[in-house]
Structures are given as C-alpha cells and as structure tokens.
Amino acid sequence: MKSSVITFPGSNCDRDMDVALTKFGFKNKMVWHNDQELPKSDLIVLPGGFSYGDYLRCGSMASKSKIMNSVINFAKSGGLVMGICNGFQILVESGLVPGVLLRNKYLQFICKNIHVKVDNKENTFFKNLDKKVLEFHIAHNEGNYFCTNDQLKEIEDNNQIAIYYCDQNGNTDDQINPNGSIKNIAGILNKEKNVLGMMPHPERMIDQSLSGEDGSIFFKNLLNNIK
Amino acid sequence: MLVNEKIAIEHGLKSDEYKKICKLLKRTPNITELGIFSAMWNEHCSYKSSRIHLKKLHTKGKKVIQGPGENAGVIDIEDGDAIVFKIESHNHPSFIEPYQGAATGVGGIMRDVFTMGARPIANLNSIHFGSTQNKKTKNLLRGVVHGIGGYGNCMGVPTIAGQTSFDRSYNGNILVNAMTLGLVKKDKIFYSKAAGLNKPVIYVGSKTGRDGIHGASMASTSFDEKIEEKKPTVQVGDPFTEKLLLEACLELMSGDSIIAIQDMGAAGLTSSSIEMASKGNLGIEINLNKVPCREAKMTPYEIMLSESQERMLIVLESGKEEIAKKIFDKWNLDFAVIGKTTNTKNIELFFDNKQVANIPVNTLVENSPMYDRKWKKSKLPKKNKIDKTIFKSLKIKDTLKKILSSPNVCSKEWIWQQYDHTVMGDTIQKPGGDSGVVRVHKTEKAIAATVDSSATYCWAHPLTGGKQVVCETWRNLISVGAKPIAVTNCLNFGSPEKEENMGEFVECVQGISEACKYLDYPVVSGNVSFYNETKDIGIKPTPTVGGVGLIKDYKKMITMDFKEIENIVLVIGKTEGHIDQSLLSRIILNENNGPPPEVNLFNEKNNGLTLLNLIEKNFIKSAHDVSLGGIITAISKMCIKGNKGIQIKKPKFLINEIEYFFAEDQGRFLIEINPKDLKEVSKILDKNSVHYDEIGKIIDKEMIIDQKTKLTIDELKSYNTNWLKGYMV
Question: Do A50 and B239 touch (CB under 8 A)?
C-alpha cells in the first residue's frame, strides 16, 4: 500500500509518521508543501507540527498551501486522508471535516498518554479493530474541539465522531477530558468517512520502549483495511 | 557622536577599560567601535572575571572530540556518531520578560548545537525561582514554562528532563538554564574557525531589528529598581523561523560549501564575525548596507549590536553562493553576501560607502580584559549538635508527608506535561526519572542526560557543593544504566566584584574540577552567569551541571519504578546520618546552618561503577539515587512510580531511625533485585568493597515502616503530586 506524508515547513512529526507507516508495511513518500501533484497514494497523511508557525489560527495558512488543492481534490474523490494533531487543524481549516479547534481549556500545552474510545467502526480507519479502548498520546496546545449545536447534531446523526477521550475503562465523563473538547471528541470524520482528523498521535505509540504499543494496533489494522 | 569616557561608562565599561581601548587603537573609538568593544568586553562575552579560573577545569578525556571554546562540546559515542551538547543561562532576560526570556534561551542553545552540524535530539532545563510566598514567583514560573514549551515544542525537539527549585535567594533573580543535545556524524562536525582569503561571508536567517540591543551588556550588570525599563533589551523569539533555519543549515551542511559557521547569539553580528575572524587569524570586511534589516534607518551601531534571534553567519567556499542561496530560498529565509575574509586581521565595517569601524580583531579578543579578582576562602561550617530528643517527637509519617509535598521535592508533572517530551519518537525515559533517555535514531544505542544543581550545599560550603553537583549527575546517569561520559556546566553566581561571591565561584569551580577529574568525566562546554543580584542581594551560588551518558543497548535501560512483588530492595552506600543542610534540617527542624554532606569521590566512583557492572549482568530491576530527603523519600518515589508498596526492615544501626531515613549522605542508591540473585549480588558488592543494607521487600500497594506506621501508595501519591498543581491554580 502506498502512503504519502505532506511536509510543511514547520511540520515536526513528519519523520515520526514516516517511521511508523514504513514499520507497518506502507510504501511511504514524503511530499513537499510547495509541490502541486500528489504521488499515487492509497493514504495521505497530514502530520503534526506547526506547519507555518501557527502564529495565526493553527493550520489556517497550511490549508491554503499549494499541495492542499490536490489533497482536497483527492479527498473529494474519495481518497483516504488522515490528519494528526496539526494535520487535524489543517483539515478543519480546509473545511474537509466540520468544527474548529480552540485552545485547550486550561490554556496549556498538554503532553501525556490518554485513552480513546472507538465507538464508530463503520469506516476504513477503525473497521475490524478488536479493541474498544486504545491508549494513545497527545501533545498539543489547540485541541479543544468545538462546533455549533446544529453541527453537533448533524455530526452525531451522520455518525461522524470517530473517537472520544475516555478513561482506561472507556468512560467518557467530563473529568477525563484533557482539553475541554465538546463531548470529549478526540477525532472526527467527514460525512463520507474517508477523511479522519484526530488530535492523538498513534505514531508515538508503536514500540514497547516508547509510550506504549496501541499505535501499532491502529496502523496494522489500517493497513489491513486498505488492502 | 563624539565618544568620551562618560559615554563609555554608560556602555558598562570601566574607566581604565576605556583608557585601554584608546591605547590599543591609538585613538578615540567612534560610537560604533565603542559599542563593539562594550559588547565584546562585557562579562557575558569576555569571561573577564572567570577566564583565569575556568582554565583549571578538567576538560580532557578519551571521548572528548571538542572541549570548551567552540559553540558546544562534542563527545564520541562510537560507531562514527557524536553528541554535541551545551548548557547556557538566560537568567536576566527571563526575569524581565519570562516568556520571551526563556523561549530565546532555548532557541539560543539549540542554535549553538545545530551550528556544529548536529540535529538537536533532546532539550533539558534547570529553572530556579524565589520563595513560593513571593508574589512574583507564580507568574514567573508560568511564563518561563510557557516560554520553554513554546519554543521547544514548535521546534519538534523533545524536552526530556529538568530541574526546578524554589529558594528565597532567587526572589529578585530567577535562573533559567537551558541545555540541548544534538546528534552528528563524527566526520560532519562544523566549526567556527574561518579560513582562506576573499571567501564570501554570508548572512542567513531572520532580518535584523532593534530588539535585544545591549542584551549581553544587560546580562553583565546587577538589577535595580529601573528593571522594567530594560524590557526592550530582551529579544523576541520566533521558533518557526528557527525550525526553518535548522533544516536549511542541515541541508547546506550535507554538502561541502561551508568553511565556518557561527550563530548570532549574544552581541549578535559583532561577536559572531569577530569570533570567526579571531579563530581563523584573519580579518573580515562587512558592508552593513547588505545586512537584511527589519526596520528602516538602522544605524551601523544598531545593526552590529542587535540581538535579533534566528540568524547565522557563514563563511562559504568561493563559488558556492548560488547553491547556498537556493537552499535558503527553499526555506524562505533571508540570504545575503555581506562581506569577505581579508588578510588585514582587522574587522572593517562599511556603511553608505564610508568606513565606519576598523578594529584589530586581537584587541577585541586576546587583549580583552582579564581580572584575577579578590576572593574569600570559605570555612567549613561547624556541625550542628542536634538534640536527639527532638527526633523522638517527630512522627515519620508526618515528616515524610511534609517532605514529599515540599516545593523542591514534589512532582513537577505540572511543568513537564507542558513540554512535548515524546516528539521524534525516540524518548524511552520521560521526565520524572533520574535522567531523560532518548534512543540514537535507528540504532541500539541510547543517550541519557540529566541536569542538576544544589545551591544549598554550595552555599554552605562551595568546594563540597561543587563536587556534589557533579556526583549527583553521575549517579543520575548510572541509575538509568548509562555510562557517564562528560558534562557541561552553567555557573550562576552573584557579583564577581564581591569577594564572597567570587570566592564561591572559585571554590565551586575547584570542586567541579576535582570531581570531574576523579570520575574521568570532563567538562566539554558551559557558560558563566555573574551579577545575579538585585539591589545588592545575590543568589545562592548555583553551578548547574548537565551530565551525558551512553547506554549501549537501550533495552538494558533502568527505570526507578518498583517492578515486582517479593523482590528485595538494597541501599547501596553507607548511611552515616548526615542531617545538616538536609531537607529535614531545613524544613522540619528549621536549622539552616552546618556543613553539607561530605563527598567521598572514591565511594562515588566505586559505588557507581559497581552498579553499572550489576546492570550489565541484568541483576537490577529498578534503581534510584538517594538525594534530597534521604532514603525514605527515594523509596516513596519508587513506590509511587511502580504503584507498589514495600515492607521496610530497618537495618540495626546505632543511628536514630529518623537519621537513617532522612539523612542526605552522598554516594547512595536504592536498587531492586530478585531474591534469587541476592547471593550473587552480595558477592559482587562485597568483592568491590561496596557497603549495602537490605532495607525491605516489595509488597502490594502499601508502605509499611513498622506496625504503627503504614502509608498507602495513594497517600504517597497525593502528598507528592498535589502541591504544585494546587499552587499553580
């Protein structure tokens, strides 16, 4: 399976994502933000980082970059696109997934392990996953997902919420919410379910020696689903 | 503008220094030249009070590729790999403007490391604040932590370890010391020594603005009530541009275009150009009209003294300008050929077709002032006679609670959760352990790093304190299974013009040097920060030491969390019951006098190396060094991290129980071993003459000290983790 990771000038999880995708069997290519064309890919990943410094709203400048035209077209024609952390912010700014990402509730960057509940398995990203709760890792300052009530209703009606912040047993109460996201939303899909944006970093959980191994489960499953 | 002595003094120069300048130049300098002298001759850049003593540091060793004197030190970690590292202070700016001060401190030290061709792989920091009662402390702490995170997180370099302390002596002068480690191939290290004539001198990075003018001079004086007026001297950081600069420089470095490279840190274009010329024994000619400026009508004086961040000066091979320009264009960075190397051995500056400065380089560097300042030797304080009946009135549980929740011992999670410590995907030991550990990407090796200081011990007796700091880092590295290789130091002191302060400096340096020499653990880089005082009140002497070690097989790394029930816990090293200057003495007995614990270098080395031997043989399941708060504090942390308890069996000794548990004798570790290995482990310890006590065995969820004294792990956790979070709300 072929994947492409877009490198914006301030991306800093692009290498980590490349390591993870390669480790689990993707043939991965790095694509520069100033390129016009995407290589032939089964999956496009927008990695974490600070794309253009994010001195404006995070991801807003990146959403207007050259390569994003191709990414948007790729997504609209049904191609799989995944945005992690800053990549999620770029997806939101590009309008590929609904809502916005505000500053974390306590106005602090948070870097720690968290758990996410996977409720929605009717999509290529989480289909066939045999675990309901995954231990992932977050590292962000603007991950506080927000949308209007109408949008929320629409998102819920369309089954677009991919993952929720929860405790290790899968409880999604307010106390476990690390950043103030509405309804504990940690990741969201577009209506057609081929675009996923999420704050957690599965690529930092791919090795027993690192923070944990649930990222491995995610990537292996993803590869199998695409095959 | 006509220059005279008064103007020179306003620039921070002393009257005889001004006279020396006139004599060296055989004329009166113009204002630009005076600015350049003041920038090069201030304490921060010239090390005029410290140079004479720094020469005594132990700086040589088999693993040293580059010692002090370059942008950073370099050590060999085998297989053609090398680690570049250094620590630097950004104390004065951080007190004036905590966010930007701390952020640019982090930016500056990362630049020092990638200037040498290394990709930064880990950041550390040592930060010190005033009393928690002081009304400024909270905001300064919040600002500094945001600043460190704001810069490091954006750069995508994990912040893997650090140290935070609170002490009244920092009320008017906080300390912010930032350390960076970078990875480079041994044959791809870049230096700042210019070579060759008529080689293009290029400027890359951000544009030059009016920020930070006289920053280095500001860092070379004490504070007074006009401190708020100094805000404009603090630089403003732009981590995104630095990230671009990092990538662009590394891309250019992968070719063969660069002869010399130097970042523009303190004293900006002035010190970077002079440094390169001086090292290469060359002259340099710069056309200041070519320097990319952010603001209109900047004068030569302002351009030369600006400390705008994220800039580099490079001497290129002739004819490589186009190749270099293409790379910097790709990363959207300014690129300008601003001058060339010459054989005049002078720095010559031109502006609007006129020569605006012409100074022999050696007058700025070799002829800069060097002082052998008066210093006062300190005496070892007398031991306190502690009334042992007091111990009887102390309950272990209450005492432990107070110590675990005291600001200098409590968990610093609130701080390090704001730092991205996992980016780059190689962090295998996060903050909160004895050392941070990152893997060397795509190898079996890992690098451990730690940073430490103990101002209280140094204040009580500088010579012992200096040794102790080095040993503490040594133990921190050993505790994670790393072989210590070398250190970097950041020497934070009060005014060198006071004999007591200078004495503290001289003796701390001596202590550091003795310990480094004995342990074969050389100093490869560092910096000095004097004048950490406000209105005559100076900080406690705070030499900060950053240690770096190698783990050859990262799977053998040790952590401090208790691993398995039924395993046995040993205390390595002898507990004599030293209470003076311990936390027990200071916060429970309210006694601040007395000598610090003695440092026995033989024991430090012997205990440490024996432990490494046990780790190599896979006997050790968890380990932690014993420091502030003594054995019981160290055990508590191992319990908390492993979520397991311990049944303590206090060894039969003459010393009191309280002394045994809370004493801060040096050279000690706690280790966890499997009962079946006890015999073999004891044999090795005995053979190496290492003292050890068996202190207990691991049980589930409870610390049992005796039948009456029991604490659950949840209790220990809440004592240890709640204080800082509560304080910062």
Answer: yes
Q: At a CB cut-off of 8 Å and minimum separation 6, what does B238 contact?
A: A53, B206, B309, B310
Tell me the residue range of the domain where A73 lies.
2-226
Q: Please tell me which residue of chain B has the smallest CA distance to A139.
A: B420
How high does pLDDT run on average in chain B?
Answer: 95
Two structure tokens written together for B131: 């009393």
3-state class (DSSP) for residue A31: strand
Residue B234 region by backbone torsions, left for phi larger than 0, else alpha for psi between -120 and 50, else beta: beta
CB of B425 within 8 Å of a chain A CB? The answer is: yes
Closest partner residue to B420 (CB to CB) among A139, A203, A211 is A139
Instruction: Note the pLDDT tens digit of each residue in A181-206.
Output: 999 999 999 999 999 999 999 999 99
Q: Reply yes or no on whether A203 is catalytic.
A: yes
CA nearest to A141 within chain B: B418
Start-to-end CA span in chain B (Å): 52
Q: How far is CA A215 from the centre of its chain?
A: 12
The distance from CA B521 to its chain's CA centroid, rounded to whole angstroms, is: 16
How many CA atoms lie within 13 Å of B401's alpha carbon, on the beta-carbon side? 12
Angle between helices B239-253 and B321-330 (to 10 degrees): 140
Chain A residues lying within 8 Å of B331, measured CB to CB: 9
Are B197 and B160 contacting, i.e. CB atoms less than 8 angstroms apart? no
B520-534 average pLDDT score: 96
Which backbone phi and psi does B537 adopt, to 5 degrees?
A: -100, 115
CA-closest candidate to residue A205, choices A191, A195, A193, A220: A220
Q: Which chain A residues touch B149 with a CB distance below 8 Å?
A: 109
How is residue A202 annotated by DSSP? G
The total of structural domains in chain A comes to 1
Choose, from A93, A135, A142, A203, the residue flagged as catalytic. A203
Mutate to test the interface with B, among A12, A21, A23 (most CBs of B within 10 A): A12
For residue B555, the chain A residues in CB contact (below 8 A) are 209
Q: Could you tell me if B123 and B182 are in contact, meaning their C-beta atoms sit under 8 angstroms apart?
A: no
Distance from CA of B426 to the nearest CA of A (A): 7
Residue-wise pLDDT for A40-87, tens only, equals 999 999 999 999 999 999 999 999 999 999 999 999 999 999 999 999
Residues B130, B136, B138, B141, CA torsion sign = negative
Which listed residue (A13, A58, A85, A147) is catalytic? A85
**Measuring CA to CA, how many Å separate A153 from each of A80, A123, A144, A145, A210?**
24, 19, 18, 15, 38
Q: What is the 3-state secondary structure (H, E, C) of B604-620?
A: HHHHHHHHHHHHHCCCC
H or E segment to which residue B313 belongs:
strand B311-316
B644 phi/psi in degrees, rounded to 5: -135, 160
CB atoms within 10 A of CB B593: 13
User: A96 by DSSP, 3-state: which?
Assistant: coil
From the list B240, B243, B425, the residue facing A19 with the nearest CB is B425
Q: Report how far apart, in Å, the C-alpha atoms of B65 and of each of B185, B191, B249 are.
A: 12, 12, 22
Please tell me which of the candidates B154, B425, B554 has its beta carbon nearest to residue A10: B154
CATH label of the domain that carries residue A67: 3.40.50.880
